[in-house]
Write a structure and sequence with these properties.
Helices cover 9% and strands 40% of the residues. The chain is built from 1 helix and 24 strands. The strands form 6 sheets. Strands 1-24-23-22 form a 4-stranded antiparallel sheet, with no helix packed on it. A 4-stranded antiparallel sheet has the order 2-3-4-5, with no helix packed on it. The longest helix has 31 residues, at 2-32. Mean pLDDT is 93; it is low at 19-29.
Length: 330
């Protein structure tokens, strides 16, 4: 009798476990892998090949748009190239070097008040140009002190000219006055971390329409958000946004660029997953764009993005040495 009872208990336990495990896995999947909530984007066209001639690239790393002109950071060629919205070459400026007007690996670009802000990874500074390509001023220098940089990767500019800079190797984001004077920072200088407000090689920053700050927390595989007063509000990317990378919706494998649209949505360059992901401002996953490859509508290490006035998305396709243009809808 006792033996039969034990067998029944054992069978019930096995059956219970057999039911619990798939339910647990499904619940976990639903909790951490969201579904798309809006229409996707379709490929329009692309331009560029590897090289040093006009219209060619050697590691495109940044994009910015002003009106009907697309500015591209052509990193290893040490220059900025300018195109129309269809990809027709217009002009070029810069060249490798450390002097005014010269560039050392330009990265994610930003345009504000008809000025182009260029973070220079090798020169540890932000250089500001007018839109025709004349150097106007240089902000910062190499170092780990206030207002100094160690491989800046991205910059955002507030309406009052305040600068927000992703200071890559210093593991921090700095807030500076328009003249480069230090105001405050997020993150501990020189120390990577995964706690809220700490960073692991931040690569880019963006401001939302309401003044909120979004940080591409590069090697932590996540996005962190701060309100207009600089207070941490939320983070996303993988389970608990705690440096767990993966290929699923809402997860990242190194984030390298971040931009926002007029509605506050956030676009993130998901470098090693070969795609762009789009989120609402609260981190809700909306859709994924692209897949790995070298064909039309495919990416090899997308690194940066920009939006034109019609909402079309432009992507610096780093590994394929080209720029791609996408439009929302089927």
């Amino acid at each position: 009798m006792a033996a039969r009872l034990r067998r029944k208990i054992f069978v019930k336990a096995v059956l219970g476990a057999a039911l619990f495990v798939p339910v647990f896995l499904i619940a976990g999947w639903l909790a951490f892998v969201p579904f798309s909530k809006e229409p996707g984007y379709r490929f329009v066209n692309s331009w560029g090949t590897r090289g040093a001639d006009a219209g060619q690239f050697n590691d495109p790393t940044g994009l910015a748009i002003s009106g009907k002109e697309v500015f591209v950071a052509d990193a290893r060629n040490g220059r900025i190239q300018v195109f129309d919205l269809g990809g027709r070459f217009l002009r070029v400026f810069g060249g490798p070097g450390k002097g005014p007007g010269e560039l050392g690996r330009p990265m994610n670009l930003t345009i504000s008040a008809n000025e182009l802000y260029v973070p220079e990874y090798f020169n540890d500074r932000i250089q500001v140009f007018d839109l025709q390509g004349s150097s106007k001023r240089i902000i910062g220098r190499a170092g780990s002190g206030p207002g100094e940089f160690n491989a800046p990767g991205g910059v955002a500019v507030g309406r009052d000219g305040t600068l927000y800079v992703a200071d890559f190797y210093n593991h921090r984001v700095q807030r500076l006055k328009a003249d480069g004077s230090f105001i405050q920072q997020w993150g501990k200088t020189g120390t990577a971390g995964i706690a809220a407000g700490s960073f692991g090689y931040p690569t880019d920053v963006a401001l939302g329409p309401g003044g909120g700050l979004f940080v591409a927390d590069g090697y932590n595989d996540r996005v962190q958000a701060f309100n207009s007063n600089g207070k941490f509000t939320h983070k996303w990317g993988g389970p608990f946004a705690s440096n767990i990378y993966g290929p699923f919706n809402g997860w990242f494998a190194t984030v390298t660029g971040i931009i926002t649209d007029n509605s506050g949505n956030v676009f993130v360059a998901d470098f090693y997953n070969h795609r762009i992901q789009k989120f609402s401002a609260d981190g809700t996953f909306l859709t994924s764009i692209g897949a790995k490859g070298s064909g039309p509508g495919q990416f090899m290490y997308p690194i940066a993005m920009a939006l034109d006035g019609d909402g079309n998305l432009y992507v610096a396709d780093f590994g394929n040495n080209r720029i791609q243009k996408w439009r929302q809808g089927k």
